[in-house]
Every structure is written in structure tokens, then in C-alpha cells.
Amino acid sequence: MSKPLIAVTMGDPAGVGPEICLQLLANEAVREFATPVIFGDARLLARCARQAGLAAPRRIISEIDWAEIYSSIDEPCVLDLFGFDAEGFTPGVVSAKTGAAGYRYVEKSIEAALAGQVAAVATAPLNKEALHAAGITYPGHTEMFAEKMAAERSCMTFFSEEMISSLVTVHIGYQNVVPALTSKRILDVIELTDAAVRRVKGRAPRIAVCGLNPHAGEHGLFGRGEEETIIAPAIAIAKAAGMTIEGPLPPDTAFITTKRKTVDAYICMYHDQALIPLKALAFDTAVNTTLGLPVPRTSVDHGTACDIAWLGKANGTSLVEAVRLAAKMAS
Predict the structure, then answer these.
(1) Could you tell me the end-to-end alpha-carbon distance of the chain, in angstroms, rounded to an integer?
(2) How much of the chain exceeds pLDDT 90, in percent?
(3) Which of 9, 84, 218, 319 is the most buried (most CB within 10 A)?
(4) What ranges make up the beta strands (E) of 131-220?
(5) What are 269-292's pLDDT values in tens digits?
(6) Alpha carbons 174 and 204: distance in angstroms, whole number
(7) What CA–CA distance (Å, rounded) separates 286 from 183?
(8) Mean pLDDT for the stretch of residues 170-196
């Protein structure tokens, strides 16, 4: 039985993306659940392989041939998106050149996904500084995919064995969090999360919604009543729709061990509310995904790590798990 074809973007060339993509290609266990295709640069990957002491890609497909043969691909390979100067940059150094290249790999993967050529997309990390240097102003992958795939609603969600968390707001400053919170937005995230976890777990999930303020507002003592006027109404609608859901919970106790045993997924109001406990518990294995897209998209839960790029030190576990989840969501 053929495995789902998963586009894997190479990420920023100056980061650990090329290195973990090479690890993925060499990982025989991955073939049991997916056929990954690296959307990147073959010459750059060959250079990274030499420098990091890894195996070079065995099969390379040109962009010209891709449209004719994608449906028959049955082994891990590289789609060579020609155009990047593989020798004209320094690994570990942020630049507009590498930012533009990483963005191009993402664009091509989205095109392939929307054309039905791949079953899902898994992304290696981009560098926001490099993107902005190249004039690309998206805050991150989530916003790129949501806009280019014309998603009516979307959210960032992290999957791991330890916990699943969805974010109501993502890459914005704390002073902008409260203005961005609405009952509709919270309900959208709840509904997207409920549907996704049902697919992955095969049953109705138990969802916990975090409050915004310390102690979930302490009945109006902290904050401006966000729990009562914004968060609670969304929870009430979800309950009326038959979802198993509770909250708003005090964020400082929502993630303790005993509570996590009774919760399948958390809804978090802002970035660090979700990411601090998640990365403390599952830094190497958590997977980032964008819910609400017409084609599944997953990603590693780490950055470009330019300080260790191309040194043979990167841990590719998160990318393997991202491909695994992408394959599961696609099927």
C-alpha cells in the first residue's frame, strides 16, 4: 500500500532545516508511514551533508519533471527548486537571501498542496529576521498558509503525547492580546480543535479553556472581566453544541500532572500560555500544525537554531513527528 506523499519544506538554508531534512531522508522508519519529498535545493543539501557528516540525498527530481512523475513517487526524494546560490552564503548567518529562499520553498509546497500533488505539508523552521530582511512581513508559517490557502478561519495547535494546545492569539505583543480576544475567535478555535482531535484520537475530546488573567480573574478582581464577558460565553456555546468542555481555568494550575490526565486539549489565550508548559514537557517531540486549512500542514516545534546549524548537532525528532502527524491527518 502506497504511503501519503508529504511535501517537506527545507526551511531557512542558514539554519538547521537542511540538516534535519537530510536526517529525515535517511530515516528508514519514516517510510513505514509516509513518503517525504524535500522542497528545497539539492546542491545546498549536498553541501550540508558534507559539512555535517550526513548522507547526501539519493534521489533528486527537477521542477520540470515534477508535474509528470509526482503521482508515481514511492521513495523519499528531493524536489530541486533551482535558483539559490548554494555556495554564496554562510550557514548560521541570517540574511535576506536565505529568508527569500525559505519563503520560496513554502510557496512551492502550498502550490503543490492546492494542486492535489501532495497529501500534506510539513515545514522546517524559517527565521523571522531573515524573512523581514527579504521584505516578507508574515509573522510566521501559520499566517502564510492561512492567507495563501484562503482559510476562512484557522488556528495554531501543538500536538504531543504530553498535551495538545491551541492558541487563540499567536505572534502579537502582550498589549495587543486583549483587543484581539473575542468570543467568536475563541469559539472558532474551540471548534477547530474539537474537530481535529476527534480525527486524531477517534473520539470526542475533553477540552479545557484557560483564563486570561491570574486565577482566571478571581471573579473580576483581576483584569477587566475578560473571563466573564469574552471567554465564558464561547464556552457556553460549545457546551450547548454538545462538546465536553470546561473553564475558564486558572492558568497556573491548568497544566499540572493530575489535570493533564483528564484533558485532551487546551485552549490558550496567548502564545506563551501554551508554549511554556508545552516546551517544558515535549520540546523535541511536539508538532505544530495549522488547523482550518484545506490541506493538512504541520511543522517542527523549534526555530532555526543558527548557533548549531550545519554542525551535525541538530535533533530531527520533531520533523519526523511532524511528518507522522501530517500523514495521519491526511489519511
Answers:
(1) 13
(2) 88
(3) 319
(4) 155-159, 164-167, 206-210
(5) 999 999 999 999 998 888 999 999
(6) 32
(7) 28
(8) 96
Indicate the Cα dihedral angle 113, 116, 118, 124, nearest 10°: 0
CA 249 from centroid of its chain's CA atoms: 25
pLDDT at 1 over 80: no
What's the per-residue H, E or C state across 102-148? HHHHHHHHHHHHHCCCCCEEEECCCCHHHHHHCCCCCCCHHHHHHHH
Residue with cell 543539501: 45
* Tens digit of each residue's pLDDT (9 = 90 or more) over 230-261: 999 999 999 999 999 999 999 999 999 999 99
Torsion of CA 164, 168, 173, 178, to 10 degrees: -130
In order of 197, 223, 284, 318, the CA distances from 279 in angstroms are 20, 27, 8, 12
What is the C-alpha to C-alpha distance for residues 59 and 117, in angstroms, rounded to an integer?
A: 18
Handedness of CA 108, 320, 294, 152 (dihedral sign): negative
pTM over 0.70, yes/no = yes
Nearest C-alpha neighbor of 300 from the set 65, 44, 26, 21: 21
d(CA 277, CA 249): 15
Partners of 210 in the β-ladder: 249
User: Where does the pLDDT of residue 41 fall: very low under 50, low under 70, confident under 90, or very high at 90 and above?
Assistant: very high
SS3 252: coil
With CA atoms as reference, report the closest residue to 314 among 14, 16, 9, 12: 16
246's grid cell: 470546561
d(CA 194, CA 245): 10
Q: Are 253 and 124 in contact (CB under 8 A)?
A: no
Q: Rounded CA gap, 39 and 10, in Å? A: 6
